[in-house]
Design a protein that fits this description.
Helices cover 17% and strands 29% of the residues. It has 5 helices and 42 strands. It folds into 2 domains: 98 residues, 3-Layer(aba) Sandwich (Udp-n-acetylmuramoylalanyl-d-glutamate--2,6- Diaminopimelate Ligase, Chain: A, domain 1); 212 residues, Hexapeptide repeat proteins (UDP N-Acetylglucosamine Acyltransferase, domain 1), CATH 2.160.10.10.
Length: 359
């Protein structure tokens, strides 16, 4: 798609400053943007805007050197010889622009592909698209306008809400409930048996997992994730939570609303996360712990105990962020401190030797 700068400004709700006749066909960063690319200065809260004018000059040299055909900004940049699209929220405008120029891929056609296998007593809402080689077992319900891409499997008696999108090869086991407007990316598994064993007569025996999984509205789950079913009751992912790729969520975990969980996180069994929790990449949570509302856990942290609401923690084992950073700073000084200690020990030995000679 190609739009003039003026047309793009209208599409994203921006005020245009400068010539709007140039053609734009893509969005890109300042450093690599070409003449047909619109670029942006992101995170407007990090720079100053006074009386509608950008006041932080750090970004201006980059823009002046850039070949971009236009720039999305939160405030006008005086003297910049480049069309400016002024918006209240750069990130929101950037999302709109990226959607405008997104690749136009062929969607799964509405209806049921001839290669799909549909079980008995299945309820399929209007506008549903079911792709090639999909397997839908007995008793499944699929809501309005949902898309089930090729190779997916939905187990017995599971329910899928309206406007959901399951990418290729997603597996939903039996007795799982997925709400409305849920996105699950390729190769993710929902409702697999959890990792729960008892040592009986010298052998590890699997504990039956008879519960289910409940995924609430507007949840998005990345590719290659695993959400285990509960032993009893349900594993729950709260409304609006977003989960990155390669995340493991164990049995009976309860995740609150609007949480953000980055890649390679592992959440052990029966953990409870409050609303608005943020887990950085490769965070690990020990089993049966509670994380309060709004907690932020830094990347690669290992959490072994309950965390009260509102805290920022980091490290392994995780502690308050300020304390963890202080420990890291002191650890980095250890080689220098060790050398100083060695020098002090040598001086003390010399002083003691001199004292003995005098005596």
């Amino acid at each position: 798609m190609r739009l003039t700068v003026a047309q793009l400004a209208q599409r994203i709700g921006a005020e245009l400053v400068g010539d709007g006749s140039a053609a734009i066909s893509a969005v890109g960063p300042v450093e690599t943007a070409g003449e047909s690319t619109v670029t942006f200065i992101r995170d407007p809260e990090r720079y100053g805007v006074r009386s509608g004018i950008l006041t932080d000059a750090r970004h201006i040299p980059k823009l002046e050197k850039s070949r971009a055909g236009a720039v999305i900004v939160a405030g006008r940049i005086e003297g910049l010889a480049k069309p400016q699209l002024i918006v209240k929220n750069v990130n929101a405008a950037l999302i709109k622009a990226l959607n405008v120029f997104a690749p136009k891929l062929r969607a799964v056609a509405e209806g049921i592909d001839p290669t799909a296998k549909i079980g008995r007593v299945v309820k399929i809402g209007k506008g549903v698209a079911i792709g090639a080689c999909v397997v839908i077992e007995d008793g499944v319900e699929i809501g309005l306008n949902s898309v089930i891409a090729g190779g997916c499997k939905i187990g017995q008696n599971s329910k899928l809400g309206d406007n959901c999108h399951l990418d290729s090869n997603v597996v939903v086991y039996h007795n799982c409930i997925i709400g409305n407007n849920v996105v699950i990316q390729a190769n993710t598994t929902i409702g697999s048996t959890g990792f729960g064993y008892c040592l009986i007569d010298g052998a590890h025996r699997l504990i039956p997992h008879n519960g289910g999984v409940v995924i609430e509205d507007f949840v998005e789950i990345g590719a290659n994730c695993c959400v285990d079913r509960a032993k009893f009751g349900n594993t729950v992912i709260g409304a609006g939570t977003k989960i990155d790729n390669l995340v493991q969520i164990a049995h009976n975990v309860v995740i609150g609303r609007r949480c953000l969980i980055a890649g390679q996180v592992g959440i052990s069994g029966s953990c409870k996360l409050g609303d608005g929790v943020v887990l950085g990449g490769q965070v690990g949570l020990a089993d049966n712990i509670e994380i309060g509302d709004g907690v932020i856990v830094g990347a690669q942290s290992g959490v072994t105990h309950n965390i009260a609401a509102g805290q920022q923690i980091f490290g392994s084992p995780a502690t308050k962020r300020t304390e963890a950073l202080r420990v890291i700073g002191l650890t980095r000084r250890l080689p220098k401190l060790a050398e100083q200690l060695k020098q002090l020990s040598t001086r003390i030995k010399r002083l003691e030797a001199a004292k003995d000679d005098k005596e």
